[in-house]
Write a structure and sequence with these properties.
By secondary structure, the chain is mainly α. It is built from five helices and two strands. The protein has one domain. Helix 3 packs parallel to helix 5.
Length: 115
């Protein structure tokens, strides 16, 4: 049974779960910034899955994730303006429209790309 689980998809799922556990310990243990935490939780798994995917799949995912940034900016502006979502500290010296931290856009892009 274990050999059936450890086929290609099973190994990928196991590694993705392991990435999440490692990201959790790194984020909380090292007290890292929002950007690094985003890269740990979404960037590393996205990079791994990109290595496993075909060029066509990667291109489609990049286009789709980029297009999803348009509504993400709108939702982020509404969330920050209403006080529902606040990022007090950013590693970048500016915010988009002086409202949105760039980390939010990186998070949105990577989250959609990873899906």
């Amino acid at each position: 049974m274990l050999t059936k689980f450890l086929n290609k998809k099973g190994r990928d799922l196991l590694l993705l779960c392991l990435f999440i556990v490692i990201a959790r310990f790194l984020s909380l243990g090292l007290n890292v910034s929002y950007l690094l935490s985003t890269l740990f939780f979404f960037g590393i798994p996205a990079a791994y899955l990109s290595l496993r995917a075909s060029k066509g799949q990667i291109k489609k995912a990049l286009v789709f994730a980029s297009l999803c940034l348009i509504p993400a900016v709108t939702v982020d502006i509404l969330a920050v303006s209403s006080g529902a979502w606040i990022v007090p500290e950013t590693v970048f010296p500016f915010r988009l429209f002086q409202i949105i931290p760039l980390e939010d856009l990186i998070w949105a892009f990577l989250m959609v790309y990873l899906l």
